[in-house]
Amino acid sequence: MRVGRTTTTYRTAEQEARHQKCVQTILYVLAAIFMIAVPIGLYEVEEHVKKAASEAFYEIEPQVVPGATNEKSLASFAGHVVHVTGTPNPAELCDNDFGVCSNTFLRVQRNVEYCQWTEHYTEHKDRDNEGNTVTTRQYYYTLGWHGSPVSSLFFNQPFAHNNPQRNPFPSAGAVAASATVGPYTVPSTILARIDADRLLEPSRDQLRDFRESPAARDFQYIGRGYFYSPYQASTMSKIAQFAGRALEGSLDIQLGDFLKSCEAGDIRVHFKVADPEYVTVVAQQQSGNGMLNDAIASNGYHVGIRPRGVDITSAGSPVIPGTPPPPPPTNQPQFQSPGQHPTSRHRNGIGSKDGG
């Protein structure tokens, strides 16, 4: 943390009274909105979603049948809402900027963080001998990681706490075009709703591909799933910043300058992926070729149903990752044929471009 300047402003009693009246009026209006309009609106939306989900579920649930276990029987399931379980097999999915690829990814999400200054302040109000309001404001600046660049243009000391706005590779995501689960094909529209929640620690093959990627010019892999790009200011930028600091009177050196964990303008990147070894899908089989699509109720709600014994999802996601369940009791319906119990795939830690 760095300590910034202290500023002092004065208001006469009349000016302070007008200011307080204006502030109170705004607060009353905002309070009325948040205490009345917002709760009512949220309640109505929540109730509408619950009602739509409930109606859709009870409409779709009786239609669900165990899916086909082989390609020969697919044609007889056309038009039905099917329950499918198994190991997903997507086509290779890549983040081409970083060369991160795998034939096990259903989704990949690039998350970018920026080392930036943020401005804070504390205020103290007092009155002088003439009854004027004296406001003393002390500025502070902290340096840390943020999910988006922070503009320093309107800081009290913008040159001493300059935030470079570089963003060579913004946050981005990709979804596999499709994935096969048994004899079925699950399209990207369904796969897009599965969470990418596992931190990717690249395999050797992925790091080799990264070193040949466009991002390798600026980034290096530092371990624990993070790629790092240190900011390097040009000579002209350094001269301009020094001149600006001199003009604003901020050439001081503080203890916080030696305790920084990053420099303003540094960027770090990590990836989250979805590559479950086993999924459960509830969707509508569109034709005899095994292509699946969303199961949509008559009210337009996209239904997703979890396996027995697990709560129904209100989010409507028809893909549920998990681990292979134990064989069901003999008096329960069998959703996959004997011998089709999914097996674990070797991924070289995460999965590689050659699928090894």
Summarize the main sheet: 8 strands, antiparallel
Radius of gyration, whole Å: 29 Å
- Write down the overall geometry: flat
Low-confidence stretches: 305-316, 328-356
Series of secondary-structure elements, N-terminal to C-terminal = EHEEEEEEEEEEHEHEEHEEEE
Number of E strands: 18
By DSSP (H or I, 4+ residues per run), the number of helices equals 4
First and last CA, distance? 47 Å
Mean pLDDT: 82
The secondary structure category is alpha+beta
Q: How helical, in percent, are the residues?
A: 10-25%
How many domain regions? 1
Biased composition (Pro residues): 321-331
Protein name: Transmembrane protein 43
Transmembrane segments: 25-43
Region (Disordered): 312-356
List the helices and strands and how they pair.
Elements: E1 2-11, H1 13-60, E2 64-66, E3 81-86, E4 88-90, E5 93-95, E6 100-102, E7 107-127, E8 133-146, E9 172-175, E10 178-181, E11 184-187, H2 188-191, E12 198-199, H3 204-210, E13 220-223, E14 226-229, H4 235-248, E15 267-274, E16 278-285, E17 292-293, E18 319-322
Parallel strand pairs: 2-3
Antiparallel strand pairs: 1-8, 3-16, 4-10, 5-6, 7-8, 7-9, 7-15, 10-11, 12-15, 13-14, 14-15, 16-17, 16-18
Transmembrane segments: 25-43
Protein name: Transmembrane protein 43
Pfam families: TMEM43
